[in-house]
Amino acid sequence: MLITGITGQDGGYLAERLLADGDEVVGTVRRADGALAAAGLGHLEGRVELLEADLLDGGSIRRAVVDAGAEEIYHLAAPTFVPDSWRDPTEVTTAVAVGTATVLAAAGELRGDVRVLVASSSEIFGDAGVSPQAEDAPKRPRSPYGVAKLAAHGLVGTLRAHHGRFLVSAITFNHESPRRPERFLPRKVTAGVAAIAAGREQTLTLGDQAAVRDWSHARDIVDGMVLALRHDEPGDYVLASGIPHTVGDLVDAAFAAAGVERIVTGPDGVPRDRVVVDPRFVRPPEQWPPVGDPSRAIETLGWRPQVTFDDLVAEMVAADLERLGVERA
Ligand SMILES: C[C@H]1O[C@H](OP(=O)(O)OP(=O)(O)OC[C@H]2O[C@@H](n3cnc4c(=O)[nH]c(N)nc43)[C@H](O)[C@@H]2O)[C@@H](O)[C@@H](O)C1=O
Predict the structure, then answer these.
(1) ipTM
(2) Which of 107, 132, 159, 281 fits a disulfide with 291 by CB distance 3.0 to 4.6 angstroms?
């Protein structure tokens, strides 16, 4: 099995899952030297084969697909931080849309029966006009990232219909874990709350707390990907919990999990919120919150997310407390 982007959050969980199933795993990384250890995946050293490939270098992607010769390809490699896509729409379009076209074409040339899953995103829905969103909801992305992911999603459907190939688009909503980098909201919150619990920080600086997201555990999402790629028929699947939470809910859950008070009384006797809003982190609000309707995945694939929102936040907080050597009271 080939995983592009094996050192990303999802790539690591997927590799663990496939290895546990007894599969051979090949993964792409931009530079192989020390890549697994740097991603906190040192335990995979010697258990997976690494190939170097860069999404911005089509030749390297084509070579990796051909060299791996895998029956299943999970194309996960992509830039993932949405705000970055405003800074460089060319790069995100090349990496996500052209990168996906390259993987799909190379896989098709290699062998007709190869199965390919492409990681798409709830960002393809944007101003959908409905929420929650199922697979057939209108797709009106609001960011260059969403536009690029929609192109990739469209390529999967078009090539599947035209060539009858086994191609799957996994429309993943937000998914997190202790391995998530800290610039994404949930890890920023759990790391920040842990730092407050450790006495290293006094406050946590965020953007809009009213924003709504549909958060799942990354391990559940990659399990859904495997089910989708191993099903009898190819198709597109929304992978999401279906349960909306605000950023504020997540913040409160993290403080509760750490056993730290969010509101504290200052020396002047005035209550103070430890969460401070910085306009730099505020994004324009969504009219149609990205909340998924995972009915198709549940009914067709028998997929069931295992980890609840509270358990996800608690696991992330516990990992961040442990990293800082804080004993939970
Ligand atoms: C499905 C989709 O999921 C992810 O994209 P995202 O939703 O942009 O993820 P995030 O964790 O950066 O933001 C979540 C929400 O939280 C709000 N928010 C408030 N205050 C801060 C803040 O201080 N930092 C951040 N990062 N967000 C903040 C922010 O405005 C937004 O409403 C990626 O995996 C992406 O690749 C993907 O495909």
Answers:
(1) 0.99
(2) 132
Nearest to 229 by CA among 306, 151, 170, 154: 170
3-state secondary structure of 264: strand
**Same domain assignment for residues 204 and 316:** yes
Q: Does the pLDDT value for residue 166 go beyond 70? A: yes
Residue nearest to atom 20 of ligand 1 (CA): 207
Same domain, 163 and 98: yes
Residue 295: inside a domain: no
Ligand 1 atom nearest 122 alpha carbon: 1
Vertex 26: Cα angle to 319 and 145 (nearest 5): 65
By the 10 Å C-beta count (0-12 exposed, 13-18 middle, 19+ buried), 316 is classed as buried
CATH number of the domain residue 191 falls in: 3.90.25.10
Give 132: exposed, middle or buried? Use CB within 10 Å, 0-12, 13-18, 19+.
Answer: buried
Lookup result for tokens 């992509």: 78
Q: How many whole angstroms separate alpha carbon 213 and alpha carbon 286?
A: 10
Contact (Cβ atoms closer than 8 angstroms) between residue 142 and residue 129: no
pTM of the model: 0.97
Give the residue, out of 9, 131, 153, 185, with the most ligand 1 atoms within 8 A of its beta carbon, to mutate for a pocket test: 185
